[in-house]
Design brief:
single chain; 313 residues; alpha+beta; Phosphorylase Kinase, domain 1; 9 strands
Length: 313
């Protein structure tokens, strides 16, 4: 595993002033990084870089760091993401610090903010279509398979000390399978494009002047309506705001596809997004034993605002 010290040593090759005996380099942990360890790197009293050290197993979580790097290069060139100044083979990455903050999970947008988000989504979808196909339904199934494999592993089968934990996790797995099987992938209404697939409030840096998209590790070729649905759901848009988002994204959209079909697809994708988040959190807990993810899973599951199947509890 690459350590913080390893990263700083490599970054100092690019910024030799970091090694000056009179220079104090600070690495301040940022709480927004849920999947990864993220640090604000400062020296000489100035915020300089944001460092990401991956904390997620790539294969299990459907991440391809090589593809991410290619897509990120296009995003930076298009002015959609802050400049990347350093990257290594392990997926560690340092980006130029920008002052725009990420958004709160409880964010509420005005019409102008929705138009800006729709515009940057349109730009994301215009990037070169690189990477593998991303279907949220296939990803959820892969995550569920990984959970099932761990539940049947020797740690749970042969050790009575883990029996209670196994029964609890099995119950949660059964619940997630039950709600997942209530979903059916919508018809493909729009051409497939390069999608980010996770533009939640923490992956947008935004103020009145600038807007950036970060964390491209789940980007791939997919349905643009899924990206729009993630924004609609995770940014707490009401029905009128969702319609405004779609019009701002493509004002001729409803001339080509009926509003009813778009609305149905969006609703399915919003539900799928919620299920993906819950399955991800449970799998993350099982791969790390970090109680933070267990509590996050329970909070999400027991929230009527977040869990699209809350009424079935």
């Amino acid at each position: 595993m690459t350590t913080l010290s390893d990263c700083l040593t490599e970054i100092a090759v690019i910024f030799p002033e970091m090694t000056d005996p009179d220079t104090k380099v600070e690495a301040i942990p940022l709480t927004d990084g849920f999947s990864n360890r993220v640090y604000l790197i400062c020296w000489r009293g100035v915020s300089r870089l944001v460092l990401r050290i991956p904390g997620t197993e790539e294969t299990i979580f459907y991440i391809d760091r090589a593809v991410e790097r290619i897509i990120l290069r296009h995003a930076v060139s298009a002015g959609l993401s802050p400049d990347v100044v350093w990257y290594n083979a392990s997926g560690c990455m340092a980006s130029r610090f920008v002052p725009q903050p990420s958004l709160a999970w409880t964010v509420r947008h005005n019409d102008n903010a929705i138009r800006r988000i729709a515009s940057i989504l349109k730009q994301v979808h215009a990037l070169p279509a690189k990477g593998r196909y991303y279907s949220v339904f296939e990803v959820i199934q892969q995550y569920l398979n990984s959970i099932a494999n761990r539940l049947s592993g020797a740690r749970f089968i042969n050790d009575e000390a883990h029996l209670e934990s196994r029964l609890t996790l099995q119950k949660e797995y059964d619940y997630l399978v039950l709600i997942f099987h209530q979903l059916r992938a919508p018809e493909q209404l729009l051409p497939r494009v390069l999608c980010h697939n996770d533009i939640n409030p923490k992956n947008l840096l935004m103020d009145d002047a600038d807007l950036w998209v970060i964390d491209w590790e789940y980007a791939g070729i997919g349905d643009p309506l899924f990206d729009l649905a993630v924004v609609a759901r995770s940014h707490n848009l009401d029905t009128d705001q969702q319609k405004h988002l779609l019009y701002a994204y493509d004002e001729s959209l409803f001339d080509r596809v009926s509003q009813k079909r778009i609305k149905e697809a969006m609703q399915i994708y919003m539900c799928a997004y919620g299920v993906r988040e819950m399955v991800w959190m449970l799998l993350k807990y099982m791969t790390t034993s970090d109680q933070t993810f267990w509590m996050a899973y329970q909070d999400f599951k027991c929230s009527a605002r977040l869990n699209p199947f809350y009424d079935s509890l």
